[in-house]
């Protein structure tokens, strides 16, 4: 896949870098303030998951443009422990019960498209898309 | 008052009106506006966005730091918006669960239904009310072919769905027992084996089983760790505890239950119950056993069903109409 740009996630500070880059790209695409904030929050969540559970990984961005719509694709990749039970982490109230953030269901709500592939022991890849309306 | 829409124009007008008049009327409309927005699932960050845009239009020369600070506020609202959406989803799920449970509760009612016997010799009153939707108490009347009436009262330690599932199993095992064999000790012994084999060790079931013989008016009974019932002597106007020691069902496979017998005189009463009756609470205080007996005595001029109903009403009120545990009470009184 050809990405415009990626941010490596190794320390907590990198979450901010990923947010910043994602926000800049979103602004260029033409997203308004609310959507920019939502996209940044989704990036935070994805990057934080990498930082907390996989240790290292990267978040990549891609501008989508076809005949009649524009959007942004964000892909978060890591080679961490993977997720055993995806249905469970996608369940409302599972990760958020401790009040520790939006969790993956939150990311799904913030974006328009959501896809996750995870293999235990190999890693996780999450792809999300938001379209400009 | 006009109907409110979440649109910029509307919000801007309201805001402008309030800035100039500082009038309560505009604030009331703001309240309506927010309620209406919630109905439309509008997130807080969107309201703030509308606020920012309204400000920009009302004050084209708005200082940049205000604009920036408003964007900052918007950012902090995103997570609240998410939590709000999650709450909506969970609420829908909860309603779904509730309706599923009420279907299950109806099924349970049909499954566990028992017909209150109508015999000349015996006046019978029975009532079982679940604390939640599903009942973890169980009572059942069985007629045998020798003119006897079997009465089972059981209680699963625990409430709600798991307790109710457990009770359905008890009911089916009892149905499968032969009508020839109605000795309380034998019935409890057989049930004990069923429970021991099929139910998780963390679940305890207590049961009292009694057999009333209509021919010679004896009451034979045995208990598997169940809340003791009471025997009312009409001649002495006194209650006596029906104590029958025995282990709760399912603890160990080979248990024998001792069977006891009592001669029932005219006007005497047998009171069977679950701990939902004796352990009913008012505030932090458990009611005393005497209080239950006192209330029963108070209504003893009524038919058995009347007593049972009045006792329930009494304790329902005492607990502010909110039962803490399933409540089952059965009263038998010899008529003739």
Automatic annotation (TrEMBL), chain A:
Coiled coil: none annotated. InterPro entries: HATPase_C_sf, HATPase_dom. Pfam families: HATPase_c. Gene3D superfamilies: Histidine kinase-like ATPase, C-terminal domain (3.30.565.10). It comes from the Bacteria. Residues 34-133 form the Histidine kinase/HSP90-like ATPase domain. This is Anti-sigma regulatory factor. It comes from Halobacillus kuroshimensis.
Automatic annotation (TrEMBL), chain B:
Coiled coil: none annotated. InterPro entries: Bact_Sigma-Reg, KaiA/RbsU_helical_domain_sf, PPM-type-like_dom_sf, PPM-type_phosphatase-like_dom, PSer_Pase_RsbU_N. Keywords: Hydrolase. SMART domains: PP2C_SIG (SM00331). Residues 123-334 form the PPM-type phosphatase domain. PANTHER family: PHOSPHOSERINE PHOSPHATASE RSBU, STAGE II SPORULATION PROTEIN E-RELATED. This is PP2C family protein-serine/threonine phosphatase. It comes from Halobacillus kuroshimensis.
